[in-house]
């Protein structure tokens, strides 16, 4: 709330800060269309980032019907790394057995 000091000169005072300033007129209107378009673009980018984190959601620039491809790709990758890790463990185990004279 501002206290009007002089209506002729449009001076007002803020009672909390004791600052005297010229009264602002609210006749200046700006178009919000550009701002709304920018917000829509930002929302699409945020939705795309959030969908990229979920394996069952579609990605922004992907074809239809590819919602679960991340699950399949993750399964194949995990199987591959599991086989590689298993072969390494077996190889180290066989080297230890061979060096200790178990065979």
From TrEMBL:
Topology of this chain in the membrane: Single-pass membrane protein
Predominant place of localization:
membrane
Q: Which InterPro entries does the annotation name?
A: MtrB_MeTrfase
Subcellular location per UniProt equals: Cell membrane
Q: Which UniProt keywords apply?
A: Cell membrane, Membrane, Methanogenesis, Methyltransferase, One-carbon metabolism, Transferase, Translocase, Transmembrane, Transmembrane helix
Entry's EC annotation:
7.2.1.4
The question of whether Cell membrane is a record keyword is answered with yes
Pathway membership: One-carbon metabolism; methanogenesis from CO(2); methyl-coenzyme M from 5,10-methylene-5,6,7,8-tetrahydromethanopterin: step 2/2
- Where would you find the membrane-spanning parts of this chain? 79-99
Provide the reaction this enzyme catalyses.
Answer: 5-methyl-5,6,7,8-tetrahydromethanopterin + coenzyme M + 2 Na(+)(in) = 5,6,7,8-tetrahydromethanopterin + methyl-coenzyme M + 2 Na(+)(out)
Q: Does the keyword Signal apply?
A: no
GO CC list: plasma membrane
GO MF terms on file?
tetrahydromethanopterin S-methyltransferase activity
For the biological process aspect of GO, one term held by this record is: methylation
Q: One Pfam annotation, family name?
A: MtrB
- What family is this? Belongs to the MtrB family.
Q: What does this protein do?
A: Part of a complex that catalyzes the formation of methyl-coenzyme M and tetrahydromethanopterin from coenzyme M and methyl-tetrahydromethanopterin. This is an energy-conserving, sodium-ion translocating step.
Subunit structure and binding partners: The complex is composed of 8 subunits; MtrA, MtrB, MtrC, MtrD, MtrE, MtrF, MtrG and MtrH.
Can you name this protein? Tetrahydromethanopterin S-methyltransferase subunit B
The upper taxonomy is: Archaea, Methanobacteriati, Methanobacteriota, Stenosarchaea group, Methanomicrobia
């Amino acid at each position: 709330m501002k206290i009007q000091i002089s209506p002729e000169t449009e001076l007002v005072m803020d009672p909390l800060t004791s600052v005297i300033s010229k009264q602002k007129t609210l006749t200046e209107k700006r178009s919000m269309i550009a701002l709304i378009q920018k917000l829509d673009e930002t929302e699409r980018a945020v939705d795309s980032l959030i969908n990229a984190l979920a394996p069952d959601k579609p990605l922004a620039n992907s074809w239809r019907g590819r919602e679960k491809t991340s699950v399949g790709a993750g399964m194949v990758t995990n199987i591959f790394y599991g086989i590689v890790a298993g072969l390494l463990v077996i190889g180290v185990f066989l080297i230890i057995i061979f060096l200790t004279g178990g065979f």
